[in-house]
TrEMBL record:
Species assigned in the record: Romboutsia faecis
Protein name: Glutaminase
EC number: 3.5.1.2
One of the record's GO molecular function terms: glutaminase activity
Source taxon at top rank: Bacteria
Length: 305
């Protein structure tokens, strides 16, 4: 397996030259565009890795899967889905357009920024601090890594420049889709995006969703079967934004990307996969990361379809 992974990294490294690291969050510009790494953890807890799998990066939109799980654990599902839809948007991740044109005024799904701001607003806690602590505790638990923390520089960079998200959040408040203090909700959203992980963390979390919410080492049920299924389904239909259709055809694995360069993939009942490659394509997905997953899926016959 190590040979296979090393080869896949070697073969696809060239694609890192065809993309660019994210720059709209200034701090993300510091990433090395040539980095490429992968980690796989299978259902027997075997761990395999190659390339820059140990490099740390911010989780960005991959966090939307975990926050969705938390929102569904914290609230009635019918309440959650009265505030955010279940349909792919077909638009870029940061699009504001449908918030105005859709009759419901609610975001299409919890994987786009507007939808994730809604799920973040549904996290329980009496104070912002308590919500942040609950969130971090949950990330640490599902990644089985107590060292997970927020990258302060990325958080501050995003908070300072995140006016597009700010605009969407105020629109959502105006339309009664989110309640409470908009700046506090945004603060929690920026923090969740700035959580620092590596490929091993993403593979571990991907494995938990792949295993329908049961920790393979302890047998503990951490997330319900239904919530795990819902999260994976959103990953298939919306996880790669307006590239989700092509990704489903070429790779066929539930996956979620982030502009930090991470992709978390979850092969039901088989494995979790964490990929890192900060050079992004035009849609904000890791350009070489997608290629790696495409090769891996073909070689190991991982497509769920
Ligand atoms: O809100 C943002 O724009 C970023 N914190 C997250 C966006 C993101 O990761 C999109 N993914 N490819």
């Amino acid at each position: 397996m190590e040979n296979l992974l090393n080869n896949i990294i070697k073969l696809n490294k060239k694609y890192t030259n065809f993309g660019q690291v994210a720059s709209y969050i200034p701090e993300l510009k510091n990433a090395n565009s040539e980095d490429l790494g992968i980690c796989i953890i299978d259902k027997d807890n075997n761990i395999h890795y190659a390339g820059d799998y140990k490099k740390k990066f911010t989780i960005q939109s991959v966090s939307k899967t975990i926050i969705l799980a938390m929102a569904l654990m914290d609230n009635d599902w019918s309440y959650v889905f009265s505030k955010v839809g279940m349909e792919p948007s077909g638009d870029p991740f940061n699009s504001i357009m449908k918030l105005e044109t859709d009759d419901t005024k609610k975001p299409c799904n919890p994987m786009i920024n507007a939808g994730a701001i809604v799920t973040t607003s549904l996290i329980k806690g009496t104070t912002l601090k308590e919500k942040e602590e609950r969130m971090l505790a949950f990330f640490r638990k599902i990644a089985k890594n107590d060292d997970i923390k927020i990258n302060q520089a990325v958080y501050e960079s995003e908070k300072l420049t995140g006016d597009r998200n700010r605009a969407m959040a105020y629109l959502l408040k105006n339309d009664g889709v989110i309640n409470g203090d908009v700046e506090e909700i945004l603060d929690l959203y920026f923090k969740q995006c700035s959580i620092e992980v590596d490929c091993v963390d993403l593979a571990r979390i991907g494995l938990l969703f792949a295993n329908y919410g049961i920790d393979i080492e302890t047998g503990e049920r951490v997330i319900s079967e239904n919530v795990s299924r819902m999260v994976k389904t959103f990953m298939v239909t919306c996880g790669m934004y307006d590239a989700s259709g092509e990704f489903a055809i070429k790779v066929g694995i539930p996956a979620k990307s982030g502009v930090g360069g991470g992709i978390m993939a979850s092969v039901p009942r088989k494995m979790g996969i964490g990929v890192y490659g900060p050079s992004l394509d035009k849609k904000g997905n890791s350009i070489a990361g997608i290629k790696i997953l495409e090769d891996l899926s073909k070689q190991l016959e991982l497509s769920i379809f």
